């Protein structure tokens, strides 16, 4: 018995960390000698999280309620604790409330060697009859009779009443009801004593009632006037759900009524002196009110009108705060806005997703702004110095200031007046940073300058070269030799292309202070006005350069090896030879390229979103006396990788000995990932990261040491409308935003180790070069914005599934290590699918990766994993041979691991697991390495080793019936059979031929777009001896039908296999059971499997479906077809942002009359 109990005690269900919305924020200000920055308390679910803002990490989490969400946190002033240890200690009294519950705690924090925290419960107040909306600590009150100090707590409830709780005796000593008794959406208390207490109540009638508590004057024959805290007639708290004092000595007094909002009032905030009140509402506005101490009669109908009204939010405003002369608001439009008291907007922050920002908090001492919302993330921002200086009363220096330097300069021979320019005018054509203080400038009259940025007041210009004819420089590229970080040596190769079709190479040597030209040479690379691009490739070095023309022709030139000194003897020139000409199959201008010398490939991207891959043999690049010019055709191509938008950057990486990964960015705001298999000579789309904050992703700065998905490692650099933006892909935060006029202006950027503290950007406007530089020394560096908590779904989840350790071992192998972590795949209302990792520990939730989203953002209703492979015999005549082949296949099979997600608009998406353990040598050879030589290196945490790539998406064509016209990629005849339910043998044929089905079911259904998939289950089947794998997917539609679909791998082809007759009610859940079958009296000899699907409907019925005949017939028929010749019509997911033409093109195609 004891042994059994001991075994049972090993298995215990423990509550883990909550991952969801952040519903409360509170600063904790310790003494300055303990910490210069405040601590942060955040409420999420029934927990509170303690963060150290100095390090940007979580210290500890505490469970405070059981099944109740934390709605608010209030703290009292800090108290230093005496300690015998060298560490410093501080304690806070905090009140945590949620719904009708309120608890008081002591929070002890020890610093500075290691921050430790402990939470001790002081009081658990009885349950209130209404929700608690706000809590305020009163200062200690001395009782003359007992010579002791007592501290009270004011509690505001949703019935517009205030309770006073005496913490020394743990009792309610006073309850005051407002003269306006009504239900509230919000309440905020101000004051540290009963005499100074002010209450602002936001009613359900879109009004704000301001009132206070005043003492009741004693009447003749009435009760004596005694001190509230000396009164010994307290409530006996024997009943936990009901408490009322036996008499009251105070009453409520109406101060004013604030009218003006046209919607529900969600949040109120008092200024520090109580003279101003800020309110936010359902009407998308915030209002500032001036509140006086004068009492007014609530019955005379007098109303106060607000001062400045803050308009700017595009949806409901959830929260607000006011400090000195700055007001912060946060709303459902996922923006946080900073305002002045006169109503002028100073700053807008938009970094959250989903249903908006629920809480905002501003600390005027440290200039830190905290935002948190429904997406579970907590963002820490620093209010810039320019904003702080523009506020009244903000003249003192801040411990954290914005170090962005902004200065301007002109080229030496630029005109001093601003007027109309023509083609002969001198102006800047190209810019290129090489480091934080060096800039190369090319002009319209053929000049090349070296600009040395000395501080912010002086620019040292050096004229390097001038083209022989005064022709405009139309393109420039730069290749720099890497030197140690603090070296002043310069060895730069600049390639200039002019309007006459000539290419000029300039080698700059020496040091950054006195650069010198090593040599210059020019040759004709094309016809006049036909040279549009010059491109160095770092993998090939300075001996090879590419030129591009408007017709998609790329020329490769070899430069003879210069002398080691870099100088040329008099009269000697460098030989230039054209060794290859690459012709794109699309005939469109090449915009970017990258090459891999080891893998012998060249990848190019054009101005219409296409990728073209060429062979680049080593023999072609090796030194040979005479190499004839050759024309090279593409190996393969990928049409519409970025829809119809320009490909802006390409990087090549080596995945394994025989696989290459290609990453591209483009004008559709997406980062795309593709794989190239040299054996198959084909490009396969494997994933996409959509950076919704950018309309053009110009490049990606990736962390080369990360084993995780590259899309989640580093920064996306690009433009949104007219602003230059650097976006952190890890924390999903905006690092830099600079208004510049857009990407069409000449511009350049340079990033350091940490772009939050080290970045440069230059652009040209009206003949002036504007330079924004932020370069903070490491010792003074504070990285903002920060993300304290991982970002999750911003809307409601409808489905989740565990990606279990056992299935991963089956799919990847025994070398997979989970380290007690759990992976969870989730689908959301906004169409996103995420993979989240939970690791037992302080924070619990380790990382959350966005796999992608459904077409058009359609909601994900169900998701399921599938990994185990089942073998079907191709011929059952020879059982002994079948058994041998089955055993052989079982040993050699490579199990794919798939995730299947379905949802609204009948979208079905599949994801394939990638083993990132094989990708440790994945180092991107980035074209932008010159500008970002040192990639971002995040904190040394354990990186995830699991990743999924997008596999395929299937959805019905427009104007098709959900029952009769589901999408058919290929049609296989002769495999449809009748299918009977096990529970009803007389139900009749449940599978009809496609033509017969369409004739019986009307396709004209106006509610067709409302049909959606509600449930899904899937299993993998492979025919013995075939290289094809079939993923059978059973989906339940909202029109009460079940369909059996088939995804044929690796060709990504979808087939309709069977349609089950409509049921009486929609199916909400599906499961599958695969039962091995054997010969009678021969249990050791398996002859196949029985495939059963179980469905549960909304009317409570459970049905069993036997799909064995259909599955076996489909697989056997499939093995006889030449499926390799089939055309895969969809090669990348549709996003609606330029991919495959976007929605606009689909509308145009639908309007074309049919012939």
Automatic annotation (TrEMBL):
Subcellular location: Cytoplasm
Swiss-Prot/TrEMBL keywords: Cytoplasm, Repeat, tRNA processing, WD repeat
InterPro entries: tRNA_Anticodon_Mtase-Reg, WD40/YVTN_repeat-like_dom_sf, WD40_repeat_dom_sf, WD40_rpt
PANTHER family referenced in this protein's UniProt entry, alphabetically: WD REPEAT PROTEIN, WD REPEAT-CONTAINING PROTEIN 6
UniProt source species: Salix udensis
Keyword set includes DNA-binding: no
Full protein name: WD repeat-containing protein 6
Positions annotated as WD repeat: 258-289
Origin: domain of life: Eukaryota
GO biological process: tRNA methylation
Family that this chain belongs to: Belongs to the WD repeat WDR6 family.
PROSITE patterns membership: WD_REPEATS_2, WD_REPEATS_REGION
A cellular-component GO term for this protein: cytoplasm
């Amino acid at each position: 018995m004891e042994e059994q109990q001991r075994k049972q005690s090993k298995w215990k269900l423990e509550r883990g960390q909550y991952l969801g919305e952040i519903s409360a924020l509170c600063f904790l200000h310790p003494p300055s000698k303990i910490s210069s920055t405040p601590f942060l308390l955040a409420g999420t679910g029934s927990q509170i999280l303690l963060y150290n803002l100095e390090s940007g990490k979580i210290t500890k989490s505490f469970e405070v309620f059981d099944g109740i969400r934390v709605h608010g946190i209030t703290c009292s002033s800090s108290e230093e604790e005496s300690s015998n240890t060298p560490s410093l200690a501080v304690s806070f009294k905090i009140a945590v409330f949620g719904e009708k519950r309120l608890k008081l705690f002591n929070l002890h924090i020890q610093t500075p060697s290691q921050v430790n925290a402990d939470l001790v419960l002081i009081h658990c107040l009885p349950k209130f009859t209404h929700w608690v909306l706000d809590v305020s600590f009163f200062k200690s009150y001395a009782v003359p009779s007992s010579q002791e100090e007592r501290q009270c707590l004011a509690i505001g409830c949703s019935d517009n009443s205030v309770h006073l709780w005496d913490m020394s005796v743990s009792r309610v000593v006073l309850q005051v009801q407002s003269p306006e008794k009504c239900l509230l959406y919000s309440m905020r208390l101000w004051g540290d004593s009963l005499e100074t207490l002010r209450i602002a109540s936001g009613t359900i009638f879109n009004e704000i009632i301001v009132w206070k508590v005043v003492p009741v004057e004693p009447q003749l024959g009435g009760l004596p006037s005694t001190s509230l805290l000396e009164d010994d007639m307290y409530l006996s708290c024997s009943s936990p759900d009901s408490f009322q004092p036996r008499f009251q000595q105070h009453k409520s007094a109406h101060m004013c009524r604030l009218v003006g909002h046209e919607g529900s009032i969600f949040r109120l905030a008092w200024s520090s002196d109580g003279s101003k009140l800020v309110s936010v509402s359902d009407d998308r506005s915030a209002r500032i009110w001036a509140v006086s101490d004068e009492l007014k009669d609530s019955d005379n109908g007098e109303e106060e009108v607000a001062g400045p009204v803050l308009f700017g939010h595009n949806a409901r405003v959830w929260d607000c705060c006011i400090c000195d002369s700055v007001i912060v608001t946060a709303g459902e439009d996922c923006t946080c806005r900073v305002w002045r008291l006169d109503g002028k907007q100073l700053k807008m922050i938009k970094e959250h997703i989903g249903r908006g920002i629920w809480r905002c908090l501003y600390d005027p001492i440290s200039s830190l702004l905290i935002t948190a919302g429904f997406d579970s993330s907590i963002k820490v921002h620093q209010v810039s110095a320019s904003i702080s200086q523009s506020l009244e009363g903000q003249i003192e220096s801040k411990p954290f200031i914005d170090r962005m330097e902004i200065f301007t300069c002109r080229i030496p021979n630029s005109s001093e007046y601003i007027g109309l320019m023509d083609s002969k005018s001198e102006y800047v054509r190209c810019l290129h940073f090489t480091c934080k203080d060096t800039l190369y400038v090319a002009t319209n009259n053929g000049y090349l300058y070296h600009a040395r940025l000395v501080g912010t007041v002086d620019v040292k210009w050096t004229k390097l070269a001038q083209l022989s004819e005064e022709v405009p420089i139309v393109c420039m590229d730069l290749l720099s030799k890497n030197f140690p970080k603090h070296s002043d040596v310069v060895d730069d190769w600049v390639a200039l292309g002019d309007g006459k079709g000539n290419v000029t190479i300039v080698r700059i040597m020496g040091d950054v202070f006195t650069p010198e030209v090593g040599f210059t040479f020019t040759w004709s690379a094309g016809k006049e006005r036909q040279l549009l691009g010059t491109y160095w490739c770092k993998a090939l070095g300075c001996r090879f350069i590419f030129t591009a023309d408007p017709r998609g022709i790329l020329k490769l030139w070899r430069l003879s090896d210069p002398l080691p000194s870099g100088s040329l003897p008099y009269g000697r020139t460098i030989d230039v030879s054209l060794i290859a000409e690459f012709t794109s199959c699309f005939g469109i201008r090449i915009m970017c390229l990258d090459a891999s010398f080891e893998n012998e490939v060249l990848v190019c991207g054009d101005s219409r979103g296409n990728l073209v891959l060429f062979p680049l043999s080593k023999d072609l690049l090796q030194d040979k006396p005479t190499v004839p010019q050759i024309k090279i055709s593409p190996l393969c191509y990928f049409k519409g990788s970025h829809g119809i938008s320009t490909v802006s950057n390409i990087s090549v990486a080596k995945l394994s000995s025989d696989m290459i990964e290609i990453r591209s960015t483009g004008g559709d705001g997406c980062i795309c990932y593709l794989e190239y298999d040299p054996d198959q000579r084909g490009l396969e789309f494997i994933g996409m990261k959509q950076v919704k904050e950018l309309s053009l992703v110009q490049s990606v700065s990736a962390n080369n040491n990360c084993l995780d998905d590259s899309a989640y490692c580093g920064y996306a650099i690009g433009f949104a409308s007219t602003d230059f933006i650097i976006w952190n892909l890890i924390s999903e935060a905006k690092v830099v935003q600079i208004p510049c006029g857009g990407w069409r202006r000449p511009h350049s950027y340079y990033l350091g180790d940490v772009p939050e503290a080290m970045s440069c950007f230059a652009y040209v406007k009206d003949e002036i070069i504007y330079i924004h530089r932020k370069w903070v020394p490491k010792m003074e560096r504070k990285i903002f914005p920060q993300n304290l908590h991982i970002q999750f779904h911003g809307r409601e989840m409808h489905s989740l599934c565990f990606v279990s350790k056992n299935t991963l071992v089956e799919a990847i192998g025994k070398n997979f290590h989970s380290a007690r972590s759990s992976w969870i795949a989730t689908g959301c209302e906004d169409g996103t699918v995420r993979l989240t990792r939970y690791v037992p520990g302080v924070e619990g939730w380790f990382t959350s990766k966005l796999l992608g989203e459904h077409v058009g953002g359609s909601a994900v209703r169900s998701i399921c994993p599938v990994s185990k492979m089942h073998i079907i015999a191709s011929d059952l005549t020879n059982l002994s041979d079948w058994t041998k082949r089955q055993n052989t296949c079982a040993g050699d099979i490579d199990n794919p691991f798939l995730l299947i997600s379905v949802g609204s608009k009948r979208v079905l998406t599949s994801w394939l697991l990638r083993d990132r353990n094989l990708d440790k040598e994945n180092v991107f050879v980035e074209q932008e390495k010159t500008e970002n030589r040192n990639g971002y290196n995040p904190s040394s945490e354990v990186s995830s080793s699991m990743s999924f790539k997008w596999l395929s998406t299937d959805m019905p064509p427009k104007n098709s019936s959900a029952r009769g016209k589901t999408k058919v990629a290929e049609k296989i005849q002769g495999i449809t059979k009748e299918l009977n339910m096990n529970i009803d043998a007389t139900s009749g044929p449940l599978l009809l031929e496609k033509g017969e089905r369409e004739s019986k079911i009307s396709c004209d259904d106006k509610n067709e777009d409302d049909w959606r998939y509600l449930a899904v289950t899937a299993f993998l089947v492979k025919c013995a001896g075939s290289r094809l794998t079939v993923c059978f997917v059973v989906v339940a539609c909202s029109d009460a039908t079940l369909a059996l679909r088939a995804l044929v791998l690796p060709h990504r082809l979808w087939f309709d296999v069977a349609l089950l007759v409509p049921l009486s009610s929609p199916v909400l859940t599906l499961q599958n059971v695969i039962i091995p079958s054997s010969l009678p009296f021969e249990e050791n000899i398996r002859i196949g499997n029985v495939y059963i699907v179980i469905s549960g409907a909304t009317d409570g019925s459970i049905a069993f479906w036997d799909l064995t005949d259909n599955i076996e017939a489909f697989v056997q028929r499939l093995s006889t077809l030449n499926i390799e010749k089939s055309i895969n019509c969809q090669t990348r997911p549709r996003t609606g942002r330029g991919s495959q033409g976007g929605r606009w093109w689909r509308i145009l195609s639908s309007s074309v009359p049919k012939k």
